[in-house]
Amino acid sequence: MPFACLRPLAALSLASLLALPAWAADPILIGVSLTQSPPGSVVQGTQVKDGMEILKDLVNAKGGVLGRPIKLVYEDSQGIPEKGRAAVEKLITSDKVVALAGGHQSSVCLAEIEVAHRYKVPYVNTNCWSDDVRKRGYPEVFNTSPYNTLVSSSMATTLATMGVKRVVAFAENTDYGIGQAKLTGEMLKQKAPQIDYKYETLDRSSKDFTAAILPLRANPPDVIVLSMLPPAAYLVMNQVYEQGLAPSPKTILYDGSGLADYPDFWQNVKEAGKYMLSFALYHPQMKQTPLATAIATEYKKRTGNEVNRLVLQAADSLELVIQGVQAAKSTEPDKLVKAMQTMQFESLRGISNFSTTPGYGAQQWLDIPFVNYELTAEKQPIAQTVMIQAPGQKFDPSKIVRPAK
Amino acid sequence: MKPLRQLWTDRLRFDLGASLAICAALALVPLFVSGPYVLGIILVSMYFAVIALGWNLLAGYTGQFSLAPAAFAMLGGYTTALLDHHLKVPLVLGIPAAVLSTALLGWVLGKLVLNLSGPYLSLTTLAFAEIARVVIGNSHEFTRGDQGLHVATLTDSRVGYYYIFLGTLVAVLVLLYVLLRGRLGRFMMAVRDDPVGASSRGIDVVRIKTIAFCVSCALCGLAGSLYGTFSQLVSPELGLLQQTGLVLSMVVIGGMSSLTGALLGAVLVYLSSEWLRGFGDIQIIVFALLVIGFARYLPGGLWGLAAQRLQRGRP
Amino acid sequence: MLALDLLANGLIYGCFYALMAVGLAMIFGVLKVVNFAHGEFFMIGAYTYVLVSLKLGVPPWLALPAAAMAGALLGWLVERLLMRPLYAGYASWGFMKDEYAVVVTFGLSLLLINLVDKIVGPYSFRGPPLIDVGRFAFGPVMLTGQKAIAAVVAVALMIALALFIKRSVWGLQIQAVAQNRLGASLAGIDATRTTSLIFVVSGMLAALSGALLAPLVNPSPDIGAFPAVKSYVIVVLGGMGSIWGAMIAALILGVSEAFFSVYVSYDYRDAFGLIILVAVLLLRPQGLLGEKGREV
User: Fold this and answer.
1) pTM as predicted
2) Under DSSP, is residue A17 helix (H, G, I), strand (E, B) or coil?
């Protein structure tokens, strides 16, 4: 055989030998417990699943982690704490996942972290805002999710800066809603004691809130804060608009649950969403890594919707597990936990590490970037919203747009 | 031809025998299976079995078609949890307290529905169940609302809890056998089949109904309380109407008016609902189709079918 | 004036509740069983209305009859496939019809909710309004065009139903079968066909109420829970089988809920109706307009 042929042949066989491990490598299993059927929030579960799927595909296309592909194992928690507990237990003991992610409902999270703690498997909290998840202080729990203290204190600062006199908050009757409303009130007392603040607890399964809204018509407040999730949040917005209460030249709506970028936001509120002020965790103007941009493009391609903060949060939690594996150079749960506790991670929106402050800050990414923006037109893409508080800047009330009549 | 009474006790004895045989089979499972997940699933099905037996006593044997079993399990669980959370009452007192409180609430409910029957009774019990769930879910200061309450546990061992539940199940079966074997059982069925006739014969219908409610609700409360200590969490979702629907499906699919039917239904339906996880997205759809299919085409339930076959040869 | 506002709002919602509940009252009156899937008829109607008008571009006024058709079809299918065993002489279910009905309708409810969730998706939609009038003042009260029109349509439908039951041949047959099934069939009425008709009408009304409320409640797959429990309360309050009773009870419920939530508590607003249910059953078991004697 001529020598000239041998070299490419050798190269070819060498290449195929090297390629074999990638095919034969067993996947890294990561467990995801989320809501895929009622009575939980399937809307949230769908967004979380989409975010994680896209990141997984992007990572696997580049060769996976430590030479192994990632495989996501899903379980349906139905939004019921007991089912979440059973789901996580199955994922850990039966499927032998190396880590868990995707929790998006606080009451279910609280049940699931117990199981993760018992088996000492790392659990990344994707979207459970309740401070209680952190306060348990379990070393296996890593919080990349926004937390009530962050949101409430920033909202209180915003309200104080706005220089308003009366604020009414509508809170849903859950741990999240009541927690946020109470915290915001407490922080307001410190930052701006002159503001008259009160909150109403509303039943989140109710469909008609006119009775709660009507008494405000006689003396409308300056700001109506929403600490509610869909579907009740959309109904409150519609009914507040219907009663002519907000948005109006006097009263502005301020959302504290990050729902302005939900895929079904505009189809549910239509004109009632105009002029709404939103505390937001994602805006195209925020610093983003190339990975984040790739995810945004892929999400648009797959679903036709603009990427939003929940999708990015989900991808972030998966990314953290991946970086943990890379830092630990292993998938042993205890090594993973140790690595994640001390590593500096690069999330999709910034570089940080998990704080060691006890209480609400336990293993929490403390300085999650946020902005405040205002929606000024129906079906407005986020990029075109009016930025009232740019990333890292102060809240500038002069930028707020009010309706003419 | 044997006297009627003896036919009844014969059948009941056969019933008990069959259900104890199932329990014996369950007792052997940990010898072959050590994975905590599978044991946990069977354990939860035993929780449902106790509730199903309690409900069966009330509906299958006494004809009081209550829609509140899951709510009473929730109330039992919350009794123990609240005592633990607020007053640090140890479980050895907390669990019996749950039985007592649900027996009492069951007595109250029984009194409420004394003069009602059929759908009126069902709806009143439904209203009671929903009121309980909403009140517990919304009383945030007291019950921490939808977040649920943390509960202490009897033991950390999964196998240990397995046998605790199994032991409870066997005790409940024996208790029900004793209750039903005597006059009480026959009076209950009389109340179910013909309340007017029964009272005209001198049966104290009020007393029978009350006893049925007390015992049934206490059993549900016991199950809920034990379950709370197992999962170390009670939340208002325990009392969802959907859970009651599940219990009813279990009894109907297993076979009403028999101990084995309720037990078999609970175990099979719960195991299959977990097994259906493999279907991924459509697991609930498949489950719903199964429930409808069974109810529509297999009226006696699985045990009804099996018992017919098994007893065909007997005199 | 707050009280006037609450009254107006309560009455309007009362009309909607009445439309939701009246179909259930009919089924109760005839079959005497609890239908766990009633809320899903509402949901299917709402979804048909929303999908037909949003995805197919049909004007909302035509989407209403489409929703009615969907409800009618579903009602007919449910009766034909699932409810026949209750009375078509299947002996083994004879004394257990309550259990059977509950389990079968529970399964049906689960099935429909999850089918819609998988096929259409979990996101909720705000249905397009029938008339594009936004908010307007009606005297001292603030209304929207949709609320006003929907209330008017609901009332019209109920009047039509009342006339149908009282005057038409089919209506009389329905009354006969409701009073005494055996007697009616002895008199030559086809009880099975009449029952089928009842389910069709019930399905149609529930679906229409879903369609009318679609712009107001933003339907999602699990929207059925809301009309279902309210309907149970109303039907028992009003007196089983009494359509007038159901309508009056619905109005009372709507108004008292509104006042209760403002003057007592928003949190327990839904529990309030249930408390009323229990109280009425204890104090006046026949409801407002039902016949005495609640043994069925």
Assistant:
1) 0.86
2) helix
Is the Cβ pair A263, C123 closer than 8 Å? yes
What is the tens place of the pLDDT at every residue in A141-155?
A: 998 888 888 899 899
In single-letter form, the type of residue at position A261 comes to: D
**Chain B residues near residue A203 by CB distance under 8 angstroms:** 138
Determine the distance in angstroms separating the CA of A4 from the nearest CA of chain C, rounded to an integer. Answer: 60
- With CB atoms and an 8 Å threshold, state whether C99 touches B59: yes
Nearest CA in chain C to B113: C282
**Partner-chain residue, chosen from C107, C115, C118, that has the shortest CB–CB distance to B295:** C107
Chain A residues in contact with C124 by the CB 8 A cut-off are 43, 230-231, 234, 264, 268
C-alpha distances in Å from residue A272, one per residue of A43, A85, A236, A372: 20, 39, 10, 18
Q: Closest residue of B to C93, CA-based?
A: B299
End-to-end CA distance of chain B: 8
Q: Which residues contact B276 (CB under 8 A, 6 or more apart)?
A: B283, B284, B286, B287
Q: What is the pLDDT of residues A83-129, one digit of tens each?
A: 888 889 889 988 899 999 999 988 889 889 989 998 999 999 999 88
Residue A136 CA neighbour count, 13 Å, CB half? 20
pLDDT 10s digits, B33-67: 878 888 888 999 999 999 999 999 998 888 888 99
Q: What's the rounded Cα separation, in Å, for the pair C22 and C36?
A: 15
Q: Which of C144, C217, C266 sits opposite A201 (nearest CB)?
A: C266
Q: Is the pLDDT of residue A2 over 60?
A: no
φ/ψ region of C125 (left if φ > 0, alpha if ψ in -120 to 50, else beta) reads beta
C-beta separation of B129 from B241 below 8 A = yes
The whole-number pLDDT of residue A222 equals: 93
